[in-house]
Design a protein that fits this description.
This protein has 68 residues and is of the alpha+beta class. The protein is built from two helices and four strands, in the order βαββαβ. It has a single domain, classed as Alpha-Beta Plaits (2-Layer Sandwich), CATH 3.30.70.20. Helices cover 22% and strands 21% of the residues. Bound molecules: iron/sulfur cluster.
Length: 68
């Protein structure tokens, strides 16, 4: 499955990392302005689909999506 994160929408709440740390990690911005999500795995195994779907659903900024 392909996972996408829209960094224009992400505000670094970190719910995704709490839900699926195998796939998402929250890091500081280069300019130190605010944290944002980074994909640890952009193409995670199907075994992680349930967790990724949960992270997509619970992202407060709707910044995450599954492409396929
Ligand atoms: S839950 Fe959404 S807003 Fe928060 S860090 Fe993850 S992608 Fe960004």
């Amino acid at each position: 499955m392909k996972v996408k994160a829209d960094l224009d929408l992400c505000q670094g709440h970190g719910m995704c990392e709490d839900t699926a740390p195998e796939v998402f990690r929250v890091v500081e911005s280069d300019d130190g302005s605010y944290p944002h999500v980074e994909l640890v795995l952009a193409d995670p195994d199907e075994a992680l689909r349930e967790k990724v779907e949960e992270a997509v659903r619970f992202c407060p900024n709707r910044a995450l999506s599954i492409e396929a």
